[in-house]
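TICKET #2291
ISSUE: user wants both folds in one file
ATTACHMENT 1:
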Amino acid sequence: MTVIREDDLIASIAEALQYISYYHPPDFIRAMAAAYEREENPGAKQAMAQILVNSRMCAIGRRPICQDTGTANVIVEVGIEARIASKRSMQEIADEATRQAYKLDTNPLRASIVVDPFGERKNSGDNTPAMVTTEIVAGDKVKVTVSAKGGGSENKSKFTILNPSASVADWVVNTVETLGAGWCPPGILGVGVGGSADKAMKLAKAALNEPIDMADLIRRGPSNKAEELRLEIADRVNALGIGAQGLGGVTTVLDVKVKSFPTHAASLPVGLIPNCAATRHVTFTLDGSGPAEFMPPDLADWPEILLDQASAHARRIDLDDLNDEVVASLEPGQTLLLNGTLYTGRDAAHKRMVSMLDSGEPLPVDLKGRAIYYVGPVDAVGDEAIGPAGPTTSTRMDKFTDQILGETGLKVMIGKAERGPVALEAIAKHKAAYLIAVGGAAYLVSKAIKKAKPIAFQDLGMEAIYELQVEDMPVTVAVDTEGNSIHQTGPKQWRRAMAPAE
């Protein structure tokens, strides 16, 4: 019987979590590079360029691809002829590995897990517990798949039970059209069909870890119903014109992965889980000979892309001189380079600020005529001013927007993805503007941040308010002072008609 040492399993999972924090899977890079070459919308093409440049920087610097270093997902398949030499549960083993990985001094990863989902939502501080799935399978080895799943894409997960005669493709396409850009496309859709409610979602999550082969599938053609479904969904979703970061474009999904399982005759359960531009996963097998070894991917897989050309046409904005005239001159789709003072603030900070405003308390920071960045950065290492610091999904701040703009004099907000109707109305009412940074380019964005210091709400951890000094931070104007949104006009422009189904 094969014996797997506990220490080898813990060390392997911990190293895998570190590995995927800075290495995209090579198949993802090749698919993204091909999509970059195909893209016709300059704004979407520039967003993909930033994602690819950021990915290469992370591979070289071994720093996180995204500031949201994700929930640790650990899928363990234990061969029935193998034995794990441990007295601890698989949850305890995975949690110890997660703790070691996320607290590593040379590359600390952001702790995002809150231990009480109902109450204070206090951060666990080490990203535990991991999300663990264990299965007993044939064989004498232990196979482990480790992935890091960001909140932006996970929040867009959907489930339904269709009538058996209904179209899975119709439901998936119609659902994706409602998701907005908070899942940071271009990415991958995992679709689970059949089983039960929990099984369908498990299938969808597992599908995301399969190799990207959409280009090969298109070349050779489908050989079964699942492959026909993959092709139909991919073509129809890309025809929606959502594009990279929701700016409109040719490619919204790089691949669609489908897994199925037998189900009840009266049911057709369907789970949908998208993966973002920070797709991160790796699989390894232990045979009792020691911990897993992870080979760095070949840097030749990353295309050489220069961002200088786009920057040459960008408009520089002084954040320390944000008067009404400057803000009113910003146009949707315009590329900006931000310089000066920028404050941070996410959900928890906004909630606390609103509570203080309601009770008549002064805020700890004067936001009049200022800009705020929706970000929860990774801790800095070495001589970094800040760790990877990409944007979070802005719609979570929508309910606070009118009061914050009206009572503080804030002029500019920066995040990712679209704003909802409430926020658009508030932006137009208060003559503010909303900009987006590229989700999936966190390390690249952090290089524009030259100084960072926490100035309020330090007890909130990564959700504290920071004062940043930025130089040429790249962003795109998403909503102007009239409430016009690039996330509405862009996809509409790039949407293409589909031929009717036969």
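ATTACHMENT 2:
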Amino acid sequence: MTIAVTGATGQLGRLVLDELLTSQEPDSLVAIVRDAAKAGELAARGVQVRVADYSDPAALEVALRGIDKLLLVSGSEVGSRVAQHGNVIDAAKAAGVGFIAYTSVLAADTTELILAPEHKATEELIRASGLDNTILRNGWYTENYAQTVETAKQTGAVVAAAGDGRVASATRADYAAAAAAVLSSAGHEGRTYELSGDYAWDFKELATAITRIVGREVVYQPVSAPELVKVLTAAGLDEGTAGFLAALDTDTEAGLLATVTGELSRLIGRPTTPLLQALTSAAAS
């Protein structure tokens, strides 16, 4: 069985391959990358490296020949992802790939989360393709708050428009372990997994965790979304990015990231990584 992972030099894809290397022969694994120069470590470990961009259908079809199972790691170019993912799905079908797993977002077909529409559309393309599939609906990554730790270390405050909202986050390594479990074992076809951390923390708890990490008191300073946009643009972000981040906070306040399902810990066979432990590791790296 040959397993391929797209975005294999990215933050999630590389962790999936790390996990797969603990149970699979290296030459049975294929890293699909845009830049082979960034995949030297994977090649040195015996992983096959193939070059293809999500925007290059011909290269994708060549790269996916001989693949039994494929993990499509969602692209990072918000606004272009449906077309790019469609290219991968079409190439997989043309190349004879037997199974595809996709990293979606929690409750993609019902949530009002600002990031959800492209994931929902991709899920629909996968199901319409006729390929055997598993949808991995990932919740929030704890590492998304690594910059928050650095900023709070300087300012003594976590400034957010999240109100009393909670976040059931887990680490990328937790989600990577789930993807590896699906790719390396049978019985997941046709399943949609709603994946999230075992505990939904609030931003006061986030500030408390950061206090322990940075060695100074950090407090949570809730603001409105317009106020947050002003704070972020004053710090140098463009208006569009600031507005996007404020919208994510608004979604958090609405409880869209708070769902605890227990499916992630069941799939990986262990508890998800606690907030303090995850942030400590993220800060150290």
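RESOLUTION: both attachments delivered.
EXTRA DETAIL ON ATTACHMENT 2: Residues 81-95 form the longest helix (15 residues).
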